[in-house]
Design goal:
One of its GO terms (cellular component) is plasma membrane. By secondary structure, the chain is mainly alpha-helical. It has 14 helices and no strands. The longest helix has 35 residues. The radius of gyration is 20 Å and the shape is globular.
Amino acid sequence: MKRFTWFLLFACFLFVIIFFFSLTQGAADIPLQTIKDACVDFDYQNQLHQVLRNIRLPRVLASFLVGSCFAVTGAIMQGITKNPLADGGLLGVNSGAAVGLAIAFILFPTIQPSQAALFSFLGAFVATVCLFLLTKYARVGMSPTGLILAGVALSSFFSAISQTLSLQFDLNQDLVFWFIGGVANVTWAQLRFVAPIYVLAIILTLGMGKSLNLLSLGDDTVIALGKHPHGIRGVALLLVVVLAGMAVSLVGPVSFIGLMVPHVTRGLIGKNYQLILPLTIIGGGTLVMAADLVGRLINPPFETPFGVILALIGVPFLLVKIRREQL
């Protein structure tokens, strides 16, 4: 527990540092004194105050929100499948949410945050159901290799559907920034809609730690303790759908966060999900904030979406993990 406390304090410290760096750095540098002045006495005629409130702050908050969503989604999926490679991006859940988002753009040309989130939830739900039906009836099983193969197939299938819809209905301009993973266009209206859902989902997720620990002991043990393994998995999958759908509705289908962050967290503090989940939430959010900051600073004034930065890290990470696990 002492080890967890130290890592949690370090993660919080890192979060604070990157949070303030993210507010100050970008196409327009904002001094810390200006941030303080904007908080104490906001001036509508001050351009830097406007940039901070309407662009920089929602962007940084959205980075943390989607990073924590993707990371904890990976942790949950790894817990219920007992698969170290489970991740919403690799298993097609994020791509399914992206299909739902594309359909929302077709049906609602002037799309609202609630409509984007709802259809992303539905897309993530359909993808999750398809994944588990495929593993159950296609004889690929729940082994690491079988699950990843099923996930890659589903991800490719849903990506193809997204591309087809995008071309057929001329959605490229509307969807392109979502699909490469960026937070520059996130608005306060979107954050106000998803924030209550996010808070509730995160609270419920933190309460799942003990149940995920029980699942690691096997279904027979869970039943012997008077619990229902299928019920636990059902609630966990519902949280996966909500968290993944919410994140995709903001920034698009970003992979590797849910693979990397829970894996590193387990390596630091062990396999207790009551400790893994809170550290994963902070770690995932901080990672995406850092990736977005790096993307802004690589080649100013042009920006590299954080999804590209994470892919450059995540692909080698996945290959190394596969080699070490001999999957």
